[in-house]
Each structure stands twice: as structure tokens, then as C-alpha cells.
Amino acid sequence: MRRSDGSRAAGLIGRNRPMFGAALRFLVGGALNTGATLALYWILMQFMHYQWAYLVSFCSGVLLSYMLNTRYVFRARHSWLKFVLFPLVYLITYSIGALVLRLAVEHFRVPEGLAPLIPIVVTLPVSFLLTKFVLQLRDRPDH
After folding, report:
1. Which DSSP symbol is given to 48?
2. What is the pTM of this model?
3. Domain spans, the chain
4. Separation of alpha carbons 120 and 100, rounded Å
């Protein structure tokens, strides 16, 4: 007797419930962070070039993201090692995002105000996997 597609999906979700929970929290935390970061970007665009506005808002988003992901998403313990490694995740995603942003604005003529939405979609899965890896590193026991 064959399992229905619905029961297979339920089984998959049941076996991977912690990952689905973390992914859902990552999306909620990311939405809050994205909203704050985009608002800052739009404000800064009034005073500086769009790439500089992207850099400043991105760096602010990294700090907010560390706090949200450590406490809320992965419920990990803060450590200085994780805090130092965490920006590397965003160095990678920033590099990818800045390239995608440039392509969007300069080659595909996407308006500068809307263009940051494209790198968000492109870098989301990379960001989730790298963030999970860094924040779930085992802390060294103190001796």
C-alpha cells in the first residue's frame, strides 16, 4: 500500500521539525531585519550614493541579524568566537548581493530604490546555511 503525498509530506515535516522551526524563525527575523535595513537604506539614499547607502545599511543589518539569530532563530549561546565569525557570513552574502545589485541597476535598469530586493532573494538560502553553521558551533569548555 502506497503512502499518500500528504502523509509523506507530514512525515518529512515531522522528522525535520527543528529545521522547519528554525527556517520559519529565520524568515520572521529576516523580515524584521530586512524592513529595518531597507528603511535605513532609503533614508541614507537621500544623502549618499546608493552603493554607500547599501554598505552602511548592510553593516547595521549584520549587527541586528547577529542578535536576532543568536537569541531568537537558533537559540544559541553568545560567544566571542561566534561574534567574530558571524560577519564572515555577511561578507560572503554582501559580496554576492553587491554584485547582484550592480547587475540589477546597471545592466537590467532596475530602479535603485527597488533593486536591493533582488539580492535579498538571491542571498537568502546562502545566509541561512552559513548562519546556522556558525551559530551552532560548539563552544569550547572553559578550563
Report:
1. S
2. 0.68
3. 18-135
4. 9
